[in-house]
Design a protein that fits this description.
The structure is a single chain. By secondary structure, the chain is an alpha/beta fold. The chain is built from 19 helices and nine strands. It folds into two domains: about 250 residues, Rossmann fold (3-Layer(aba) Sandwich), CATH 3.40.50; about 230 residues, no CATH class. Strands 1-2-3-5-4-6-7-8-9 form a nine-stranded mixed sheet, sandwiched between helices. Helix 8 links the parallel strand 6 and strand 7. Helix 7 packs across helix 8 and helix 9 packs across helix 10.
Amino acid sequence: MNRRLSALAVIGSLALVLSGCTFISPAPVPSATQGPTPTDKAGFYGQTLVWTECGKGLECATAKAPIDWDAPAGGAIDLALVKHPASGTAQGSLLVNPGGPGGSGWDFVQGSGDAVAGAPVVENFDVVGWDPRGVGQSTPVTCFTDPKDTDKTLYGTYSSPYDTQGWIDELTVEEQSFADACKKNTGDLLGNVDTVSNARDMDMLRAALGDKKLNYLGYSYGTYFGTVYAELFPENVGRLVLDGAVDPLQSDFESLKFQMAGFDSAFRAYLQSCLDGKGCPFTGTVDDAALQVRTILDGIDALGLVNGDGRVLDSATLATGILGNLYSESYWPDMTTMFAGLADGDPALSFTSADSYNSRNDDGSYQSNSYEVYVAATCVDGDFASDPATTLDRIAEIDVAAPILGKYATYDDFAVLDIACSAWPYPRADLPTAFDAEGAAPILVIGTTNDPATPYASSVSLAKQLSSGVLISYKGEGHTIYNQGVACIDDVVDAYFVKGTVPAADPMC
């Protein structure tokens, strides 16, 4: 599942509002907690956070969490936090997560400033972002230490063509090397980056922040954090908003296949918009244009288009670039320019989009370890390893469900996960099997009708599963929608957070 795009999409959407704001900046070192590292659950819950100023009116701190909540004496990790203090009188804290797995809540809050949430929310809450276990400035998951090795994993080409057993054999060797490096350089944390462990961290952070109830804003995969939290700690649920929801009852493969169909749907909407405008590189109907794109994807490997830095564009990287431009309707003009460049034999903009997806800098370094966490968390949360079908058979199923982009998007995503998780050195975590969160306060679930990454039906399903779920629908394009200038959505969410107001019915914005 292309969940790792979600955090970039949320931050990118905010960038449209915050002109000139930089989201990746030199990070001050968060403060340590007072006293010795706790060795039992009560000690972790009772720790004191030491907040220090860290620029732009923000405060930073570091919390401690056990590597394994079932064995809290077995070692601890750091969790980096950043707080945007309430501009008025704080009702309490609001914990936020932009998605992932692998998204940095620290970067999200540090980069967003006053626009991290609606003005009424920022006035009434201390907004706190944290890097979940394994992410960024928290104790990190580390796999390859040389970015050239990461480049090989994300952009490398193969001797055998895609969709062949020879390619699967090469990929298997590559993913075994990746898994071995992750285990060597991360240790036991690698097996404890699951969502249940993160939910337990969230409850500990609630207590350390001094809140009786957890107030939480989660986007995309961050909705799964919130859903699992509500199931484990329903009595501690305060005001939870889950925007762009993940359906927790879908298998990983079915969820990914469903998501690829969502990307195809969003791409068709892009094609219609392109054809209706000027300078579109495609012709005819939407179906005609879709076939033209499929022809481009089918033929791109044979062209061997070389980027200025020597990387060769293949169908997997091009699909990554396309998907990245589907996360917001505002990116569609960039997509048109990207395709126009390809028509002239220039792959530069395709790599620009793929690099943004992968958090890769112009100099070849990487802004974050989001890819490593994405694979690690998916392998310990998901069921890929137990899937009896072969990788090639599953790719064929995805191709039927999403006949424009699906197959090509699997090459650097589903196929990687299916094989990497089979070689993963740690078992799948124990996860809840039902998600009614009986006894929890009302939880708002927001769904966008043509969301490419978390299709609308997932939000509908989650709202029904939660005993106190309240569905809020937005008729439109893009992934997630709160705090992006849609008053109908923003007013509902702000009133819920500030006053506890729950809509009597879906406003269908």
